[in-house]
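haha ok so turns out i had the wrong file open the whole time. this is the CORRECT one, sorry everyone. sequence first:
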Amino acid sequence: MASANRLNDRIALITGASRGIGAAVAKRFAAEGAYLVLTARTVGGLEEVDDAIKEISGRRATLAPLDITDGHAIDQLGGALHERFGRLDILIGNAGSLGELSPIGHIEPEVWDTTFAINSTANYRLIRSMDPLLRLSEAGRAIFVTTGAVRNLNPYWAAYAASKAALEAMVNIYAAEVAHTNVRANLVDPGGQRTAMRTKAFPGEDPETLPNPDEMTNIFIDLSESSSNINGKLFKSYK
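then structure:
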């Protein structure tokens, strides 16, 4: 994998890094020289990604298995990163949940609450814990993964779309709050990718007709570079 070392020795935390978009971004970041801290619930998946990173960069990532809805665990991770590195250069808020595709009145309250807990509240907790570390970087960069469902407003997608709409509002406000600091915050809509979440949403779709997440990592590199000054924008990684 070719590398221009565009993220050389920058410390990056990626959530939902055990598969799909998170794993693809982690491997691309490794190729660009970043030091990685990876979180997900699935230990085995994290270890597989770490093995790939070792092959790419010659060094291991720091693995932090956790439930992204556990705010206390996120706070502990922030404290550990401060103690070990003294800063965080890049935060990728990728972990997400589709919830259930169902008429609004048929969605169980537990499903609604869990979808918001993963897609919205967990990212609030990440910002709350990691913002001080991003400010300690000479160029802190935060990128959060959203969805076109926010704008498409298709029937049955209420839990996913509403939780991601809340995420977008929060990130845009955060971007406004850090506009006069060294931190920049943006959103990426990856579109339809060959992921487990896409298969759950469209079970009859041929995954071979979709792009592989490895093909859409450029935008994450562009926004994570210390030279990037873009703030408060939404980017689509597709046409």
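The domain at 11-236 is CATH 3.40.50.720 (Rossmann fold).
again sry for the mixup
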